[in-house]
Amino acid sequence: MTPSQHLQDTAIRYFLEVVRSGSVSEAALRLNVSASAVSRQIASLEEVLQVPLFERRPRGMVASAAGELLATHAKRHALDAERVVADIEALQGLRRGQVRVCASAGFAFEFLPLAMVTFREQHPGMQFQLVSASPAQVTQAVRNGEADVGLTYSRAAVRDIDVQHRQNSPVILIMPPGHPLARFASVSLAQMQPYPLALLDDGNTARQLFDIASGQRGLVFDPVLESGQFDALVRFVLHGGGLTLGGEVTVREYVRRGLLHTVPIRERGMHARSIELQTLTGRNLPRGVRAFVDHLRALLPAPR
User: Where, by residue number, does the polypeptide cross the bilayer (predicted)?
Assistant: First the structure.
């Protein structure tokens, strides 16, 4: 049990695990206790509050309206407990601490590992946990308190999320430096059509905007590679397999080293997304998390 868990009531911890997993048995496995122990704690909460906290359904348990309200309060309480412990550990400076980051695949590929290295040069005691997920899952992880920081592409505002930094991030075309399209200052979708194309799956904002723009132009693309792993697409391009799509930040270092070349796409719809650095609304961030957020704010804007 971590120090912050000592500051939380057992019934609340069990309740939150059932909310996360949607199942008493699954929650019991994660907590390493019996299912009956979890059920007793949930029942005791419902007895105290005089209201059902879950709707029991054939495929699992879903929080009721009262359960959702309690979960929101309990998650913030749990995060505040973690902050207190982290801040106590940080009284002698940022010598210890952990930052949990959830990010879209492109950011987890190169930008964030490099940012973590440069941050640890100043604060070598800091540790990181990095999870890659779809944009919607990144935001949900922040809302659920499973991540301290989310870095993702967004097309619309989301409730319960504080945006610590936002910048426009058009979808760009990524290619080897010697590709025939590299000589153009910008390209159209029609110019891209003759060449092999590798794309992320449809949970990615670049793919969504590309599909919308292609449909509006009446163009059909048959990608030679589809993957949920951005690094696979980049390596496909590096090996001469074709083109892919992404953002300036995600391939910045590869372009700087001359390994890749990028070109803007002449479609208004390809500009309709932003990078968002996300934290949970109303949460007092631990000192180490705040420092890393500031670090990312400084790194994200394109070099002038």
Answer: none
